[in-house]
Amino acid sequence: MEITTAQEQDIPLIVALLKKSLGESLLPKSVNYWRWKHIDNPFGASPVLLAWEGNQLIGVRAFMRWRWQHGARQAEAVRAVDTATHPDHQGKGIFKKLTLALVDQGKAQGWNFVFNTPNNNSMPGYLKMGWKDAGKLPIHVQALRPVSMVLNAALKRKAADHGLQGTPVAEILQHAGVPVLLQQTIQQQAAAAWVTPHTRESLLWRYQAVPVVKYAACSLTQGNDLQAVAFYRLKPSRAGVEFRVADLFTAPGASRQAVARMLRDQARAEQADYLTASGCQNQYTGAGLLRLRNLKIGPIVTTRTLATDMTEDLTGFRSWSPSLGDLELF
Predict the structure, then answer these.
(1) φ/ψ (deg, to 5) at 230
(2) Which among 12, 17, 26, 69 is least buried, having the fewest CB atoms inside 10 angstroms?
(3) Confidence at residue 318, expressed as pLDDT on a 0 to 100 scale
């Protein structure tokens, strides 16, 4: 077996192996999706290793680049994402070899930590390789149409798909107040925990250019000042239509009640049955949303520290505040 670094011309073979090994699952696998995630990412191109048996591609492992900020410090991180082994070559330790090779590469290049959201099948393997269970991402939930939610669950009705009514992401990001709002929000949140230091560019990539899911935005203004911007999508579930707030940015003086009202009004305009948002983000505190810690609705997150100066404990989301948009779809 030979291990090489992936090249541009390998992408079609990589996508074909992912389909053969994993199927389509919830998200379609395509060259466009791969390029968006691993090449166009404004945080940097992904390191990707391939395993070959002669001319046959038998394994792939990708770590997606990400960035976090806490106070004035920034951390270069990677997310363990796409991995696949050819069905005829299972049980040869290919997944472990490629993963640990990327971990060694990360240590040499000064990455601070690696994180991911494994499923139940892959979780034991990560724990054996030194990952730690960071817990389930806490989620805020507010029921908007509780009777409909109960009936949907009882009758096992599938929620109907319908178009988004909110402002297009690219349009909202053209507002002159966006850079200041992002700077203020990140500075405020990063004082307490690691957060993603988003820019207009990274938000356009994340919520406009993404090829597999449609997002929209809503905003709160006071005069000419931008008080809050939220990026969201609709997701059918067994309880009905979920209004999922992927990211929320709020000015320091913005009223939390006004922000919550903006979200609820937009969710009702989208005919959603309930609203969800990451419980890590403090903009929701005291805003009338119920924080659900114990329900099995948040993704399981695992982490592994790579840098010796990365001393913060990332378990339990005490010093780390990812949004739903930081974790979903990858």
Answers:
(1) -125, 140
(2) 26
(3) 86
Q: What pLDDT, on the 0 to 100 scale, is given for residue 75?
A: 95
Structurally, what CATH architecture does the domain formed by 2-136 represent?
Answer: 3-Layer(aba) Sandwich (3.40)
Please tell me the predicted confidence (pLDDT) of residue 160. Answer: 67
pTM strictly above 0.85: yes
The Cα–Cα gap between 232 and 245 comes to 4
Its CATH class, for the domain covering 139-298, is alpha beta
Pairing status of strand 113-116 against strand 216-222: unpaired
Q: What is the token pair recorded at 177?
A: 């107040």
Residues of the chain with CATH 3.40.630.30: 2-136, 139-298
Output DSSP code: residue 320. B
Rounded Cα distance between 60 and 128, Å, is 20
What is the C-alpha separation between 140 and 122, in angstroms, rounded? 27
Which 3-state string (H, E, C) describes 7-58?
Answer: CHHHHHHHHHHHHHHHCCCCCCCCHHHHHHHHCCCCCCCCCEEEEEECCEEE
